[in-house]
Design brief:
The protein has 284 residues and is an alpha+beta fold. Helix content is 37%, strand content 26%. It contains eight helices and 14 strands. It has a seven-stranded mixed β-sheet with strand order 3-4-5-6-7-8-9, with helices on both faces. β6 and β7 form a beta hairpin. α1 packs across α2. It is globular, with a radius of gyration of 18 Å. 45% of the residues are buried.
């Protein structure tokens, strides 16, 4: 415990001194490997993984390699859990629950949008220790939006503080939900509860940008059925630091180390998160 506390204090010092360096690395990775390929991908630059809605491109792979190299250089002793590296070697995912500081990286969140020339994609980076996300960086290069969050110190978008606020009373809650391809039959039944009166549900786009929409008060909640940390770690901290909350179907906060009761929700405020979580629980 003493050693973990010492590492935490070291990371706090790192963030105070070098958070801007992390932003620089994220911007450079996008500028070198992602933006030049936007709307310029050749057919053999895109490969399906588990299906037509689960794609990987050369930009994903090269951007993750760039981020892995530069982020570990910034913070010696840290490790990276990246979506593409874990796809190649699933055992790498275990580092999220390890003792070393871990960078959780999704080089192109919203690859499907990226492939189709839609600007709704982003790069997600989170820094965690002992299963707790301490800081996050969300960059949407085609939209020129960069959001950051540091635990206990708030969240910003392009340097302006983010506040999620609360939904307007009496108005249906706008909720972005998982694509049906990524849900089990039980999860589909749970999500159907969000089609009832009082909700306005729609399919989600890039998870990272949906979390940003919550943090800026443009979306009331999300309801997601998968728990891969690179999709959620950065955005969940962004939502928390903007005043929002997240809950699993069991009513407890989402854990990036896994084992969550799914689907789960993140929302503009705690009351909304509990309301959505209760609906999800009632249908399973």
């Amino acid at each position: 415990m003493i050693e973990t506390q010492a590492i935490k204090e070291s990371i706090d010092d790192f963030l105070a001194r070098q958070s801007a360096d992390v932003e620089r690395v994220v911007r450079e990775a996008a500028a070198a490997e992602i933006t030049p390929r936007f709307r310029q991908l050749a057919e053999d630059d895109v490969v399906q993984k588990s299906g037509p809605h689960d794609l990987v491109t050369v930009a994903d792979r090269l951007a993750e390699e760039h981020l892995t190299r530069e982020l570990t250089a910034l913070l010696p002793g840290s490790v990276v859990v990246g979506e593409e590296a874990v796809h190649a070697d699933p055992a790498r995912y275990d580092a999220i629950a390890g003792q070393a500081p871990v960078w959780i990286v999704d080089p192109v969140d919203g690859t499907r949008q990226f492939v189709h020339g839609d600007p709704g994609f982003c790069t997600l980076v989170a820094l965690a220790l002992d299963g707790v996300v301490l800081a996050s960086w969300t960059y949407a290069p085609a939209l020129d939006e960069f959001a950051t969050a540091v635990r206990g110190k708030g969240a910003t978008l392009n340097g302006t503080p983010l506040r999620a606020g609360s939904p307007e009373p009496g108005r249906p809650l706008t909720v972005a939900t998982s694509h049906p391809d990524f849900t089990t039959d039980d999860q589909k039944r749970a999500l159907l509860g969000l089609t009832a009166e009082g909700f306005a549900a729609r399919p989600c786009g890039s998870a990272g940008l949906e979390y940003l929409a919550i943090a800026r008060g443009a979306l009331d909640a999300v309801a997601f059925s998968w728990e891969l940390a690179w999709d959620h770690a950065a955005g969940l901290l962004l939502v928390e630091e903007a005043g929002g909350a997240h809950r699993t179907r069991d009513g407890v906060p989402f854990a990036i180390t896994g084992g969550n009761a799914l689907p789960f929700t993140a929302a503009r405020d705690e009351a909304t998160a509990l309301r959505v979580a209760a609906v999800l629980a009632s249908r399973v």
